[in-house]
Amino acid sequence: GMRMPMWAHRCPAFFPWHRELLYQFEKELQRVSGSPDLGIPYWDWSMDQNKAGVPWLDDLMGGDGNNGPVTTGPFAGNANWPLTLSEDGQDHLIRGFGLDGPFNRLPTPAEVNATLGVTTYDTAPWSDAPSLATFRNQMEGWHVPPESTLPIGMHNLVHVWVGGPNGTMQPSTSPNDPVFFLHHANVDRLWAVWQQRNPAVAHYLPAADLPGQPGQGLNSPMTFYDPALSSTPPWADPPATPAKVVDHHGLGYQYDYETASPTEFRQAVMMTSAKHLRAMKPHDHFKVHLEDLLEGAPLTDEWTGNSANFSIEEAFKDAIGKAPTDLPTDYFRYTITEIGYEEGGFTEIKNLFVKIKRANIKS
User: Fold this and answer.
1) Which one-letter DSSP state was computed for residue 341?
2) What backbone torsions phi and psi does residue 357 show, to the nearest 5 degrees?
3) 107 phi and psi, to 5 degrees?
């Protein structure tokens, strides 16, 4: 039978091993597509949790299989997406969103934030011990905080939630489900966020090699294939070390939260809000506030945007122009709490929840 290799899981190299895998896969996608700017998107499973929303759209990953074959999207069925190597012997994609016993939910923003607050990357015994409260072990999902109601969390919980009891995302051949790469792109992003939040700590440990555990030391080449199962490496580049990939900028990419300026923020809010604004009657002012979704608290008091001619765009643009420029976290919601209408000064409370990831906004 096939084996789950321990050079990538339950060990310190969890993050750099998967970063190198994503990097090599993305390069191959760029090659076969002829698009050098192609990038793997990330699925922020703490925010996008609608079973019929992103990424489960017909033109993206396709949808649920209700613990059976996926029937929608480009990867539905053996004819569209034949699986030729799978640990469970299945030849088609299977999903069962939230159907595996108690694992009926995805990680929450609060759980993500708590994990990002763990300041030690990893430490002895460098394993999956449930008591090992390190960033790597908690993000991988083996350590869960005492208040958690589930025995696993974070990365592991996402695999189990997507797969359900019999799904493709459950066994060691989980990359057969393309959402694997969107999932791990988010895990990779969270490692980068954690590094940014913890600039003074070691971003990878251990520095020295671990006896009997190849590919775990900072300068130890990671293992990407088992000579007992394959005679050739999966790609031509020499095996990467954790040190080579610990800074993702050195691989030539960055995440959206790293690039947003106040101008880009306001432009993105305006673009995302257009569909809401078109549905509104004319009005002369908005009251707006931003809320930090991770902390659950407003960043500022409400502020008002005005328009002399009852222009929807003008009033809203004026309001967003007053938004704070210091945005210390990654997730926001802006709420329109009051709209002044032209006829009689009527006021209506309207909550438009828009999840803002710096420059990248999902409504």
Assistant:
1) E
2) -110, 80
3) -60, 145
Using alpha carbons, list the distances in angstroms from residue 255 to 115, 192, 258, 359.
19, 8, 6, 10
Residue 5: the pLDDT is: 59
Beta-carbon-side half-sphere exposure of residue 157 (alpha carbons within 13 Å): 25
Q: Three-state SS across 223-281? A: CCCCCCCCCCCCCCCCCCCHHHHCCHHHHCCCCHHHCCCHHHHHHHHHHHHHHHHHCCC
State the DSSP H helix or E strand holding residue 193, giving kind and residue range, or none if neither: helix 179-197
State the pLDDT at residue 37. Answer: 83
Q: How many CA atoms lie within 13 A of 349 on its CB side?
A: 0
Beta strands in the chain (DSSP E): 68-69, 94-95, 283-292, 297-298, 303-306, 332-341, 347-348, 354-357, 360-362
pLDDT of amino acid 349: 39
pLDDT in tens, 235-245: 989 889 999 99
Task: Spell out the alpha helix ranges (H) of 5-134.
Answer: 14-33, 77-80, 109-116
CA distance 187 to 155: 7
304, β-bridge pairs: 287
pLDDT per residue over 130-150, tens digit each? Answer: 999 999 999 999 999 988 889
Three-class SS state of 336: strand
